[in-house]
Amino acid sequence: MALAELGEEEGDAAIVAEAEKEITLIAEKLRRLELESLLSGEADANDCFIEIHPGAGGTESQDWASMLLRMYMRWAEKTRFKVELVDELPGEEAGIKSATIKISGHNAYGWAKTESGVHRLVRISPFDSNARRHTSFASVWVYPVIDDTIKIDINEKDIQVDTMRSGGAGGQHVNKTESAVRFTHIPTGIVVKCQSSRSQHQNRAEAMQMLRARLYEQELRTREEKATALNATKTDNAWGHQIRSYVLHPYQMVKDLRTGEETSDTQGVLDGDLEAFMSASLAVRVKGKTESVEDLA
C-alpha cells in the first residue's frame, strides 16, 4: 500500500502498476492459504491417484475421457505438483478406455478429492460426419496415496493377480515382456492396474500401493457418508453422482452442479484452470460436514 501511495504521489504509473500487481499476488496467496486451512481431513495432505473411465458411447466418450486426463495433468502442472501416468489403455480409434495418474505434492488429495464423480460433455462430435450434437459422460475417481503408518490389512489369498504386456504407444518404448500387473481384490471387486515401470516387481509394488489406497479411500468414504447421513448435501459426495457439466455447443459454459460455480471460459477449464471449482466445492463440503456434526450432536 505504501509503495502504491508513493507512486500516486510521484505520479509514477509504473510504480503504481507494480504495487497493484504485488497486492494482487499477496491477496491470492492469502486466499489460497485460507482455503488450505480447510484441508483438515486425515489424508488431505497426501499425494493422490486419479482414475478416469469413459461412459457408454464408444469413441466419443473415450475421447472425452482423454480430454479429462489432459485437463488433470495440466492442472497438476499449473499447481506445481508432480504428475505421473501410472496406467493408460488407449481406445481403438481415439481417446482412452481408462487411465490412472499419480499426483504428488502437499495437499494434492485435499484439492483433487472434490473431483470424484461423473463429468458430462455436450458438443458437436468430431467423429460424427453429420456434425450432430452429442452428450458424453466419463467418471473420475480420486483416492489418496497412503504410507506405512496407515494400517490396511490385505490377505494375499483375496487378491487375484494377472500379468500382461504393457500397452501404450508403439516403437521402442513398448514393453515386450509381461511386466504390466492387474490386481483384483475379490471381497470388494476393486481392480487396480499398473504398467508405469518396465519391471514387473516395481509394478506389483505400485499396484499394491494403489489397492491399499483404494481400500483406505473406501473406508474414508463410508465414514463420510455416515457423518453426512442427516445432511441434504449428502448426494453431492456420492460416487456416480453427476457433478459437472461442460457445454461447448450451442454455447460455452462449464457449471458445477453442486455449488453453482460456472464460467464461460471452457478452454481455460479444459487447460487445467480448476481452482475456482475445487475451492467452491471444498467450501461446501466443509460446511456440510460442520452442519452434519451439529445435527448429530
List the total number of helices. Answer: 7
Neighbour order of strands in the largest sheet? 2-3-1-5-4-9-10-11
Broad structural category: alpha+beta
Provide the residue-averaged pLDDT: 81
Shape: globular
Gap between N and C termini, in Å?
Answer: 46 Å
Strand content: 15-25%
Radius of gyration: 22 Å
What does this structure look like?
- Strands 2-3-1-5-4-9-10-11 form an eight-stranded mixed β-sheet.
- It is globular.
- The protein is built from seven helices and eleven strands.
- The relative contact order is 0.13.
- It has helices at 2-10, 13-36, 59-78, 108-112, 200-227, 266-270, 275-296, and strands at residues 48-54, 82-90, 96-104, 117-124, 133-144, 159-164, 180-185, 190-194, 242-247, 253-256, 262-263.
- The protein has two domains: 2-36; 48-229 and 236-296, Alpha-Beta Plaits (2-Layer Sandwich), CATH 3.30.70.1660.
- The chain has 297 residues and is an alpha+beta fold.
- 38% of the residues lie in helices and 25% in strands.
Summary of the model, kept short:
By secondary structure, the chain is an alpha+beta fold. The chain is built from seven helices and eleven strands. The protein has helices at about 1-10, 15-35, 60-80, 110, 200-225, 265-270, 275-295, and strands at about 50-55, 80-90, 95-105, 115-125, 135-145, 160-165, 180-185, 190-195, 240-245, 255, 260-265.
